[in-house]
Specification:
The chain has about 425 residues and is of the alpha/beta class. The protein has 17 helices and 15 strands. The two termini are about 35 Å apart. Bound molecules: beta-D-galactopyranose. Beta-D-galactopyranose binds next to loops.
């Protein structure tokens, strides 16, 4: 992958606004290799079908290469890590960290760095020669004051509209919608056929939908501006985009929302709902776990209004301060950063590799298109709110609280004002 990319760099600089000292500190962090290396406890939220398979593939490879180390899979269930992060926070506060934990590249990781939860891992980058194997923009998203703090395993795309081609055929719809207004028109047709226009999952999945409606309605520059203060949340066009989101929710099954993202997709497979907006972990679920054929059993296009845009996020693993089995943790991170690890994990997970030198041939069907889009220099890259790229943890948590109220009162202007106010206090 030759995405050392101007595009990626420009966007992460604009949207993520990460302060990086470009040349950094040449001194390497020593590998202490300390602690008990008999086991390694790895924390993630990959327990569900589609996610578990990917993690398992990487664990198997790790075990093969590190036969003396017992692997403790400390994954906590729940899409997007909502529950897992609560458990992790409690553990970190009690100074009881796992040996490595999953965190998103970007502002989510930066909060952990600022809170002193993680150690720099530059020494591993030096040892493994990783620095020129990752896109420059991604490296910046995991760097603070010239030090690198995690090892990314993948790149996911958040802005996708999933559908079952047979359902569209049944409804007499020739192609999925390219704008949200076209989507709302199609929703009428679907309603007449007693098909729900959009299936939806829990609160985080509804916010995931919201970020992508905002992206589709506002376009790249204004969407980026939402996260760096240059777009006024209270501006009429943002409130209007939120009102579109409200209309989209009205034609969804939000009143009987699925408990997680997989059951929401199940409704699309079954044909009771036409569409679902979800990240491309859906591809892992639909092809690896459900064994459906791309273009036959399922298909996906960019969510309405976001063609040519990659709303990205990246899963990465850390070296927590006081990791009890630090030497083994380093070995896990080496697995995460390796070509082998990434090429075993990502084809199952529904993501493309973070590394630029992975084996392209391993990425087929949906993933071949994802990789081509990711590498296309004309693709515009923006960052996800829900999946940790563009907002620090404090601001994201305020947005979640405001979103909870919005779910009840559906007052777009009030919600926008609350997000704007919290940006001023904790989001900058
Ligand atoms: C994201 C994570 C993905 C996937 C998704 C759904 O936050 O980055 O890897 O796990 O949640 O659970």
């Amino acid at each position: 992958m030759r995405r050392s990319g101007r595009g990626f760099l420009a966007v992460t600089m604009a949207a993520v606004l990460i302060a990086v000292s470009a040349c950094g500190d040449d001194k390497q962090e020593p590998s202490t290799g300390g602690g008990d290396n008999s086991k390694v406890e790895v924390f993630s939220w990959w327990t569900g079908p589609g996610e578990e398979e990917g993690l398992q593939a990487m664990i198997e490879d790790f075990k093969k290469k590190n036969s003396g180390i017992e692997f403790i899979n400390a994954a906590v269930a729940g899409g997007s890590g909502t529950q897992a992060r609560q458990v992790l926070t409690t553990r970190l506060q009690a100074n009881n960290p796992p040996d490595s934990y999953q965190v998103h590249a970007g502002k989510e990781l930066q909060s952990d760095i600022a809170d002193g939860k993680v150690e720099p891992v530059d020494f591993l980058y030096e040892k493994e020669g990783w620095k020129d194997k990752l896109p420059k923009g991604l490296l910046e998203a995991i760097t603070v004051d010239g030090k690198i703090y995690s090892v990314p395993v993948n790149i996911h795309r958040s802005n996708l509209l999933w559908f079952n081609p047979k359902t569209l055929q049944t409804a007499g719809i020739s192609a999925p919608p390219k704008t949200w207004s076209e989507f709302l028109t199609q929703a009428e047709t679907l309603k007449a056929k007693k098909i729900t226009a959009l299936s939806i999952g829990p609160a985080w999945a509804q916010m995931h939908l919201m970020e992508n409606v905002l992206l589709g309605e506002l376009g790249v520059d204004k969407y980026n501006g939402l996260w760096n203060g240059s777009t006024d949340w209270a501006a009429p066009e943002v409130v209007a985009a939120l009102d579109t989101f409200k209309k989209v929710l009205e034609v969804s099954d939000v009143k009987s929302a699925a408990a997680d993202w997989q059951p929401a997709l199940d409704k699309v497979i079954a044909g009771t709902a036409a569409y679902n907006v979800m990240g491309d972990w859906a591809a892992g679920y639909l092809s690896s776990a459900k064994k459906l054929k791309y273009k036959e059993g399922f298909d996906a296009i960019a969510s309405p209004g976001s063609e040519g845009v990659y709303n990205f996020l990246s899963d990465s693993f850390t070296l927590p301060k006081n990791a009890p089995h630090r030497g083994a943790a380093e070995k896990w991170l080496v697995e995460c950063g390796s070509v082998d690890g990434q090429d075993l994990f990502n084809p199952q997970k529904g993501s493309v590799p973070a590394r630029t030198d992975a084996d392209k041939a391993k990425y087929k069907d949906y993933l071949a298109t994802a990789l081509a889009d990711w590498q296309n220099p004309n693709t515009k890259i923006v960052g996800s709110l829900v999946h940790g790229v563009v907002a620090n943890n404090a601001w994201k948590s305020e947005i979640e609280t405001a979103f909870g109220l919005y779910a009840q009162n559906r007052d777009s202007a009030k919600f926008a004002q609350a997000v704007k106010t919290s940006y001023e206090s904790v989001g900058k």
